TrEMBL record:
Keywords: Acyltransferase, Cell shape, Cell wall biogenesis/degradation, Peptidoglycan synthesis, Signal, Transferase. The active site is at 245 (proton donor/acceptor), 263 (nucleophile). Residues 1-21 form the signal peptide. Pathway: Cell wall biogenesis; peptidoglycan biosynthesis. This is L,D-transpeptidase. InterPro entries: Big_10 (IPR041280), LD-transpeptidase (IPR050979), LD_TPept_cat_dom (IPR005490), Transpep_catalytic_dom (IPR038063). It comes from Nonomuraea marmarensis. PROSITE patterns: LD_TPASE (PS52029), PROKAR_LIPOPROTEIN (PS51257). It holds the Pfam family Big_10. Residues 153-287 form the L,D-TPase catalytic domain.
Length: 317
């Protein structure tokens, strides 16, 4: 329904914030930093050298969550990587049902793995970083994490027909009436009230999300533009504040017209059902608006075609 304030930090700076944002920054459900402890050494032994370790891996492992077929592997190191090619060559991804994939560096410390086509559902994927083989990095142990890919959830939102069709493992399961961004608020040449068209990935969810008008500088309750609402069944699909969530009233517009500040509003039953099946990395394709989704807005990496994506690798093809 509405979008608001502070967002998760984007992988690179976003040019324009969207209207629908949460009051508080959602805490990413990352697993704890995976740093291997050096083995006990004799008092007289020289200290082992550690030049590079992993600070974080997203998403979590197979025992903590199942992920969608669009999910990326996001690896953050504990310091700037000087030789990206050497490090990238030590990163391995092995799937039960393999598909082609490639790494893309988005900063000096962060690299992201994306596949050419979506992962096959209902399988395991093993990531391994053999950093002990990096020259001079003798104090580091190799790190691995196994991911569990769940059901293929692909949702198609048509902002012109005001519907969201949800396909599970390739079969249409539900058609939900929706209301998308109405448009009409231009900032820096961008209509921030429009829902972005493109391939989004679900990034997280909250049973109740607080949404306010503070994103546009309105914090005084006496201001007629002020609002602060508790929105149920909110599934985040971008860093700029877009969600699929239950409409806070205004049910007469669902399936008929676009009236939100940029989010995808759904019926109470539809929103609750979607929340229940949502996994991080599920695909949400939105069509019908003039505002295009930036590839670095959240986990929107599928906005780049395969040739563009591979250009971010440090390894020569």
């Amino acid at each position: 329904m509405n979008r608001f304030p502070r967002m998760l930090p984007a992988l690179v700076a976003l040019v324009t914030m969207t209207a629908c944002a949460a009051e508080s920054v959602p805490v990413p459900h990352h697993a704890p930093a995976m740093q291997a402890a050096a083995g006990a050494a004799a008092i007289t032994a020289p200290a082992k050298k550690i030049k590079l370790e992993i600070a974080d891996i997203t998403p979590m492992g197979e025992k903590s969550e199942k992920v969608g077929v669009g999910f990326p592997i996001i690896v953050t190191f504990d310091r700037d990587v000087k030789d990206k090619a050497a490090v990238e060559a030590l990163l391995e991804v092995q799937a039960d049902r393999p598909v082609e994939g490639a790494w893309r560096w988005v900063s000096k410390r962060k690299v992201i793995y994306r596949t050419k086509t979506y992962w096959k559902p209902h399988q395991k994927v093993l990531f391994t970083a053999r950093l002990s083989q990096l020259p001079g990095n003798t104090g580091t142990k190799d790190v691995s994490r196994r991911f569990a890919v769940g059901t293929s959830n692909v949702s198609v939102v048509d902002t012109r027909k005001h519907t969201m069709k949800v396909y599970r493992d390739g079969k249409i399961t539900k058609k939900i009436p929706i209301s998308a961004g109405r448009g009409g608020l231009n900032r820096n040449g961008v209509d921030v009230y429009l829902t972005t068209s493109g391939v989004h990935l679900t990034m997280g969810k909250k049973a109740v999300e607080t949404m306010t008008s503070s994103w546009m500088g309105v914090t005084d309750p006496k201001d007629p533009r002020y609002y602060k609402e508790e929105i149920p069944w909110a599934v985040r699909i971008s860093d700029s504040g877009e969600y699929v969530h239950q409409s806070a009233g205004y049910y007469q517009y669902l399936g008929r017209s676009n009236q939100s500040h940029g989010c995808v509003r759904a019926t109470p039953a539809g929103a609750r059902w979607f929340y229940g099946i949502a996994q991080r990395g599920d695909v949400v394709k939105i069509t019908g608006t003039k505002r295009k989704l930036a590839w670095n807005n959240g986990w929107s990496y599928w906005q780049l075609n395969w040739t563009q994506w591979k250009k971010g690798s440090a390894l020569k093809s």
